Amino acid sequence: MRAREISVPVGNAKKKANSVPKLEDGFAQQDIISVSQFSRENLEHIFAVAEDMRAIVKKQGSTDLLRGSVLACLFYEPSTRTSSSFIAAMSRLGGTIIPITQGVQFSSVSKGESLPDTIRTLESYADVIVIRHPEMGSAQMAADCARKPIINGGDGVGEHPTQALLDMFTIKEELGRIDGLNVGMVGDLRYGRTVHSLARLLCLYDVQFDFVSPEILRLPLDVMNDIRDHGLPVAETYDVADIIEDVDVLYVTRVQKERFADLAQYEEVRDQYVITPELMAHAKDKMVVMHPLPRVGEISNDVDADPRAAYFRQMENGMYVRMALLAAVLGKV
Ligand code: CP
Q: N or C: which end of the chain has fewer CB within 10 A?
């Protein structure tokens, strides 16, 4: 029985300031700021190239496709997967890296340099820039002042479009399709930018959503309204047991301590959801558990050996998808 339920009727050239253009003419020299830019055709192209990239890496480790190209990685927030998979992706494509990923305190940002000046500097040296920043809208701001392509590696509580690409690729690889799936999302749906991007991207497909969160971490209204506008079925509950039997994808997220102004509120909700083997005993035989990672206890380590636990394969897929995206943005595929 669901705690509460919402019924929803079924129903290029760079640059233009303050815009997020669709990728109708392809990816070459375009910014990647929001999942709202993608069509199904764009996704299918990236997925096909990502499969090719995986085959190349498995067979020979690397290729010269982007030899001579330079990627600047500008990370104002901590990252392991996004930063290192972009670095690995560019390296395996034969390009080189400017890594500002170990803390901007070692760059001139610590001397008070503005974001626009930092972007102008890096684009003098690099062909494409990946930025992660704690403020929503920062990637767009960077794109507005850049001549070179900007890729959003996560902007505060806003979006994480490349994570959504690799999440979608993983769903397709694991389950063979996206249309017709029931997708459950669990945890911090309010501040979780991976959730916001993935939910919006899934709206290109015929899916139904089950959202599980504490009251204070419910999905933002603007994301919910986007789902409503697409006429897709959506339900909300407080208890993951309500949905575990039904879902094809269980997308688990960390409750993000760093997003809470009031730490007492964080303590109240931090351990509310833990995916365990006992819970997984009620899930379908053919389904997947995903997580953007890092996890801090919301999936028990005992679940890792379950073949339905896809989060480490998901993480690996990030490199192949980012190889595809870099090659596409630099006009090679
Ligand atoms: N999924 C993700 O964005 O991980 P990192 O924070 O380690 O980059």
A: N
Question: Ligand 1: which atom is nearest the Cα of residue 315?
Answer: 1
For the entire predicted model, the pTM comes to 0.92
What average pLDDT does the chain have?
92
With CA atoms as reference, report the closest residue to 134 among 73, 76, 217.
76
Q: What is the DSSP letter of 290?
A: E
- CA-nearest residue, atom 4 of ligand 1: 81
Tokens encoding 217: 């971490």
**Exposure string for 311-333, b = 16+ CB within 10 A, e = fewer:** beebbebbbbbbbbbbbbbbeeb
Domain boundaries, the chain: 35-159+318-329, 162-315
Q: Which residue, among 14, 3, 270, has the nearest Cα to 129 in the 3D structure?
A: 14
Question: Taking the domain 35-159+318-329, which CATH number applies?
Answer: 3.40.50.1370
Distance in angstroms (rounded) separating the CA atoms of residues 166 and 42: 13
> 35-159+318-329 with 162-315: one CATH topology?
yes
Q: What is the pLDDT of residues 164-215, one digit of tens each?
A: 999 999 999 999 999 999 999 999 999 999 999 999 999 999 999 999 999 9
Question: Which pLDDT value is given to residue 9?
Answer: 31
- pLDDT tens for 84-122 read 999 999 999 999 999 998 767 778 887 888 999 999 999
- Overall CATH class of domain 162-315: alpha beta
Secondary structure of residue 312 in the 3-state scheme: helix
Residue 132 bears catalytic tag: yes
* CB of 291 closer than 6 angstroms to any ligand 1 atom: no
Cα of 4 vs centre of ligand 1, distance in Å, is 31
Q: Among candidates 95, 192, 314, 229, which has minimal Cα distance to 211?
A: 192
Exposed/middle/buried for residue 233 (C-beta within 10 Å: 0-12, 13-18, 19+)? middle
Which are the contacts of 283, defined by CB distance < 8 A and separation ≥ 6? 244, 245, 247, 250, 289, 308
CA of 6 to the centre of ligand 1 (A): 31
